[in-house]
Amino acid sequence: MCGIVGYIGDRSAISVLLDGLQHLEYRGYDSAGVAVIQDDQVITHRSVGKLANLIQKIDRRELHGTVGIGHTRWATHGRPTEVNAHPHQEGRVVLVHNGIIENYLDLRRKLEKLGHSFTSETDTEILCHLVAEQLKKTKQMQPAIQKALALVEGSYAIVVMDAEDPDRLYFARQGSPLVLGLGEKENILASDVPAILAYTRKMVFLEDGDRGVISAKKFEIFDAKGKPVKRKVAQIDWDPVMAEKGGYKHFMLKEIFEQPKVIGDTLAGRISAKHGVVLPELAELFGSKKFDVDHIQFVACGTSWHAAGVARYWIESLCGIPVSVDLASEFRYRNPVIGKKTLCVAISQSGETADTLAAAQLAKRRGAKLIAVCNVQGSSVTRLAHATLYTRAGPEIGVASTKAFTTQLTVLWLLTLWLSRKLKKIKTAALEQEVKALKRLPGLVQTSLESHNEVRALAKQFMNASPVLFIGRGTHYPVVLEGALKLKEIAYIHAEGFAAGELKHGPIALVDQDVPVIALLPQGDLLEKMISNIQEVAARGASVLMIGEKNCFPKGMGTAHIPMPKASSYLTPILYVVPLQLFAYDIADQMGTDIDQPRNLAKSVTVE
Ligand code: G6P
User: Fold this and answer.
1) Is residue 374 among the annotated active site residues?
2) What is the structure's pLDDT at 586?
3) CA distance 301 to 73
4) How far is the CA of 542 from the centre of ligand 1 (A)?
5) What phi and psi, each to the nearest 5 degrees, are found at residue 460?
6) What is the rounded distance in angstroms from the CA atom of residue 394 to the CA atom of residue 383?
7) Coil, strand or helix: which one is 80?
8) Which residues have any ligand 1 atom within 6 Å of their CB?
9) Ligand 1 centroid, distance to 306 Cα (angstroms)
10) Any bridge partners for residue 73, and if so which?
11) Confidence at residue 120, expressed as pLDDT on a 0 to 100 scale
């Protein structure tokens, strides 16, 4: 949601800004803009729609200024029009903003009384005027921003350019992400790491309340009261190439095919024949202390919530601890029973999802221990948590999450095994067995990817179907929810996932010969039950696509079959989601939708 870039240095700012905004496109946006100071003038370009529209408007040869700010806007207050696009300017103050100013109407009224008039419908323009108003008194930009922000309620990350001073950029963050990249004779501010990677890997993850100023060679950070603060400089290990398409047609396809590799990375150093599962990240939290947890509470949104759904089955069956799984947006507004013996696990690829952060904060306030499962180093949830288990998926650019999901599952399975060991619920031999199975996991995911040709052929057949139903049981119930979500997100096809046993309580009324059903039937205790459920829908004329091990397919049933490799029953959710990801991808590709940036969606939902 909204992407910000600010550049100051010795290069042409416009190239860095546009390149940075391109790397933030995944966040979702519907208009874009840039402003550069050149020859004492602010040159602003704004445009509705894709970044390509903005790029077309700009003659880079004419723009050589070395300081500038850029923005991709995901409309909240005011429609996606050129007038509402950022940067906004009032006098000296040129500003881009990500977030929501909650008291903007109140502020607007007060400013109008002081003679200010507004051209856009945005809350951001209010911020410009607010700073400009303070400038009348203080004359200096930094204190003016500081004073203006003291009047603001809501969330923001802002970068401010002073039209009268091309040697500085100002910034502030409260609730929305902002990263500072420290280069040689150049500094960059951006909403996320991929926009900075091409220039430097030395970064500061700004914290809530941080405000500051950068020049080409220096940076200063202050707290909300204006006191200087020190922040750790992190060295990011992501490679800039990781954020490129690498010959694939879409980021999503590249990310699906990266899964064997990133699952291998996520496992690296965390399993060993001698020690079982090693999670040093949890040492401090549970180290020598008695393991005093009687309830595990997951909070997450979207795909991450589905990962939590699988983990619930794993943990309850192996560790015997009750597990609750909540959508963060619901959890934060109910009155959950959380106490000191609760272990809250917040799962978030980005680490910046507003609802997940609020839910995690609530659990922590009520005394829970908080673990984050996250993909982005230094992100907000990792700073909030007592401990973080990182997924090592590398940058995930496609809005529809794929490799983040399977690496989350990998981490959650490691956590399950670790907990079961800690609680002495698993025998050494059984743990050894599971560790052995985990070693084979990347290879098995590779085999699942081999289903691509079959899936692609089937996708043609299912392209015009709507709705599409997905059914599964046990750990595969959340997996079918994920399969249906993928299809909705990128192919805009109405799809629903159901616990197969629940079909007869309503959803089966939807089934006829035009409604395809995709069924997951892994080997195990629930196989016979699944076969009965498939019989129920087949008897009503549905064409059934079955995904499972070859010997599990019931004879004479199903219109199509996708064979899966043999695996430990705990690991099958990680394998069976792969053909579902490919299925959604191939249908969307044949339909020609905008796969990496589907309509109305944002990768990182940093506002409520
Ligand atoms: C957005 C994305 C989803 C993602 C969800 C949670 O809605 O479009 O793909 O699953 O946010 O994101 P998180 O970064 O917290 O995992």
Assistant:
1) no
2) 96
3) 22
4) 32
5) -55, -45
6) 19
7) coil
8) 301-304, 348-350, 353, 356, 399-401, 601, 603-605
9) 11
10) 31
11) 92
Say how far apart CA 148 and CA 607 lie, in whole Å: 21
Point out which residues pair with 390 in neighbouring strands: 374
In ligand 1, the atom with minimum distance to the C-alpha of 350 is: 14
Q: Cα(2)–Cα(352) distance, rounded to whole angstroms?
A: 13
Among residues 277, 267, 416, 288, which one has the least CA distance to residue 343? 416
d(CA 24, CA 5): 9
- Give residue 286's pLDDT: 84
Q: What gap in Å lies between CA 19 and CA 7, rounded to an integer?
A: 11
| Residue-range domains of the chain with CATH | 3-242 (3.60.20.10), 245-448 (3.40.50.10490), 452-591 (3.40.50.10490)
Let me know: does 103 contact 153? Beta carbons within 8 Å: yes
Q: Count H helices and E strands in the chain, helices first.
A: 19, 26
Nearest CA to ligand 1 atom 1: 603
pLDDT of 460 reads 85
Sheet containing 179-182, strands listed edge to edge, beginning at the edge strand earlier in sequence: 41-48, 31-38, 67-73, 3-8, 187-190, 179-182, 202-205, 234-235
Q: Report the alpha-carbon distance of residue 263 to residue 436 in Å, rounded.
A: 15
Q: Are 253 and 259 in contact (CB under 8 A)?
A: no
Q: Which atom of ligand 1 is nearest to the CA of 356?
A: 15
- Residue 379 near residue 351 (C-beta atoms within 8 A): yes
The helix (H) or strand (E) run that includes residue 443 is helix 441-449
Identify the helix (H) or strand (E) that includes residue 482.
helix 476-491
Say what the alpha-carbon torsion angle 549, 551, 555, 557 is, to the nearest 10 degrees: -10
- Which residues of the chain fall below pLDDT 70? 288, 558
Burial 108-135 (b: 16+ CB within 10 A, else e): bebbeeeebeeebebbbbbbbbbbbbbb
Q: Ligand 1 mean position to 484 CA, how many Å?
A: 15
Q: Are strands 387-390 and 369-374 parallel, antiparallel or unpaired?
A: parallel
Residues 6+ apart with CB under 8 A from 432: 273, 276
Active site residue 2: yes
